[in-house]
Amino acid sequence: MNGMQSMRITMQALLVKALAIAALVPALAQEPAPPAADRSALDAEVQDLRRQVVDLNRDLFMLEEDLLFPASTQVAVFVSMDVGTFFQLDTVQIKLDDKEVANYLYTARELEALKRGGVHRIWLGNLKAGEHEIVALFTGQGTHERDYKRGATLTINKGVGAQYVELKISDRLRKLQPEFVVRVWE
Amino acid sequence: MLAPWLVSALLAAVEVPAPGSAAVGLAPVKVQDLHYGDVLFQFYKHDHFDALVRLAAYRDQGRLKAHARDAELLRGGLYLSLGQHREARRIFEELLAERTTPPAVRDQAWFWLGKVLYASGLYADSERALRAVASTLPGKLEPERRMLLAQGLMYRERYDEAIAALEGWTGAPEWTAYAQFNLGVALVRAGREQQGLQLLDAVGQLVTENAELIALRDKANVAIGYAHLQGGRPAAARLALDRVQLAGSQSSKALLGAGWADAAEGGFQQALVPWLELHGRGVQDGAVQESFLAVPYAYAELGAIGQAVEYYEQAIASYDAERVRIDESIAAIRAGRLLQAALATQGDGRQGWFAQLVDVPDAPESRYLYHLMAGHEFQEGLKSYRALDAMAKNLSRWRDSLGAFDDMVATRERALTARLPAAESRLAAVDVGALNRRRDGLRATLEAAVAARDVTALATEHEREWLALLDAVDAELAAHPGDTALDDAREKARLARGVLMWRLDEAWKVRRWQAERSMRELDAAVYEARTRQSGSSRARQGAPERNAALRQRVVVVAPRVAALSARVESAKAAHESYLADIAVGELESQRRRLDEYSVQARYAIATIYDRASAQVPSP
């Protein structure tokens, strides 16, 4: 057997070997291969840590709220959207007793979250008991990509408990116009 | 020689997670609690950790009452998406154990439980759970259920049932394509090549604009190509490999295979086209490394010995240079620089992130990231490391906030001490009891007037003056009973009183209604005053205790943050060393492979020289 023949045989043998291995490769992806023992231990530690970090974050989230926004003075303003065909929201500005407290510019992902039923807590703050005026200013694009700006006003009577206000953008089908509704939740 | 890189390359080729497998699907729900909507908002904008934290907090605060079961489903799904299988399984099992869980929620809980069991490798249990779903699941859950069922069956080598589960399925094309691909590869592995190739071929000929599906199509065609090459059908292999796009992640493997397909049919000239294309690519790619040997091999076969020697020498030089670069990279990895480079990439599983790794800087620590990340073990380890890194940052932020919390409690205590005396004196000045008594008096007067229909009781100030004047006139007239000169005046006074009484009588209904309304408003005002006073009093009395409780919460939570931070840091260090070991192991095996390639190239040159010298006639 001369040199070139020997090399050709080697190459072909290697190709066959490689292809045999290709056929033996595990197939699926969604399911990972069983983890090695050391990785199992590491995974278990990460799982336990993550559960504890979630619990800790929950406790701190509540502690922070109790410290900064006690129930007796707490007011939260939420933005929700129902369909949103006639209005492409850009920003929402909130004024409380003529003072701007929030001005939020929505990203595409956040708009998608609103359209899918998410409700955005746009402002969380404190108000004394008594009457307060909330003004919400919505800017965006209406039908035919025209700039659209609308306001909604509500006077709330803040009592002793926490109070939640919902600013809802919905479609008024009969008029082919968006509708902005302000509602107080008890 | 080719085995090690092909193993990793084909592992990458077949590791195809189904679309959105990391995400939690969710049935549409009408929001009845604003706070549940807030959780959904975080969830839909893909902030799963924040969604989970808020969900847990709102649940404990009793703000998710209208969505208690939906919230539990979501919580389990979120834990699952974060890889917390045990926690997720516990939640779904609890939901299923509750008798009052409605059928629709029960179906979803079975689905999620099936998914958890599947992810844990418990395929038989998973199948039972997935089959327990009684009705068609909403949205994308149903196609996912079908796919999990089929894949679970496939893992248990029940291929016929898996094929049956996929047959007649009219799910979204992306789901069917992934399921067909996975099943096709499994069948080829099981020796049922024809059936496997049939399924793979359907994926390999997909017409789509979707980038994810195009990548899957490429993988299918590479798998088909290599299966045909192995089966000695180079023409069929070439057909499939030609369908792979030239710019995709599979193109190197496809080019190499296409060359082998041509070579197998003796077309060495044609084989040089794809192999020389590969020759110009980055040498860290296994397919490129092999092309450095394949090109001179083809030249030698074509009788171009001079060019063959030249390319073999070039191959040896490239392998040597690459080995030096691998050594640099191993040193960088041992110095801990690999993870910094890995964390700088967008490794969050978003579409296209993996392909972007091709463009990472050509530095020792990042040069082989793309190839390392093709390995499942490294990818999983890195995912955990990222999670730990995120936890460390989260804990560090809270550690900074704890100082501020402490200050806030102190400020509240100081403010209470400063304001309490003034507030108490203001409250003392308000006699709610007296207000109550006055209100009761007014109510009695009104009720008496209503009972007696005393129209004068609701007279205006002006009318009262008139009544008083008329009373005075009548008294004066009564003092002169026999005086006929006053008869005219008597008549006028009678007439005036009659007019006044008539007016009062006419206004009675309206005035009575107004008076009663005012009384109700007064009731409300007195009630409000009483409530506020008692509320204020309660608030004042409970304030020191509440502040103390808040302080206690801050005090208790601080050591938890510190302890968890220490554990997270230690887990990070363990992961760092684990990932470095994998990376170094992979690079060392690559170096050994290059050593073997180098030996083979040298051997080939020697063989060529030997042959040449053998052909020279002796003098």
The stretches of 5 or more residues of chain B where confidence is low (pLDDT under 50) are 1-24, 348-356
Beta-strand residue percentage of chain B = under 5%
Query: What separation lies between the terminal Cα atoms of chain B?
Result: 40 Å
- Number of discrete helical segments of chain B: 24
**What integer value in Å does the Rg of chain B equal?**
43 Å
- Global structural class of chain A: alpha+beta
> What average pLDDT do the residues of chain A reach?
80
Task: State the major sheet of chain A.
Answer: 4 strands, mixed
Largest interface: A-B, 79 and 107 residues
Oligomer: heterodimer
User: H/E element string of chain B?
Assistant: HHHHHHHHHHHHHHHHHHHHHHHH
Helical run tally of chain A: 3
Q: How would you sum up this structure, described in words?
A:
The complex is a heterodimer of chains A (about 190) and B (about 625). Chain A is of the alpha+beta class and about 190 residues long. Chain A has a domain at about 70-185: Sandwich (Immunoglobulin-like). Chain A has helices at about 5-25, 35-70, 110-115, and strands at about 75-80, 90-95, 100-105, 120-125, 130-140, 145-160, 165-170, 175-185. In chain A, the strands form 2 sheets. Chain A has a 4-stranded mixed β-sheet with strand order 4-1-7-8, with no helix packed on it. Chain A has a 4-stranded antiparallel β-sheet with strand order 3-2-5-6, with no helix packed on it. In chain A, strand 2 (about 90-95) and strand 3 form a beta hairpin. Residues about 1-10 and about 10-35 of chain A have low confidence and may be disordered. Chain B is an all-alpha fold and about 625 residues long. Chain B has a domain at about 395-615. Helix content of chain B is about 75%, strand content about 0%. Chain B has 24 helices and no strands. The radius of gyration of chain B is 43 Å and the shape is elongated. The two termini of chain B are about 40 Å apart. Chains A and B meet through helix 1, helix 2, strand 1 and helix 3 of A and helix 1, helix 2, helix 3, helix 5 and helix 8 of B.
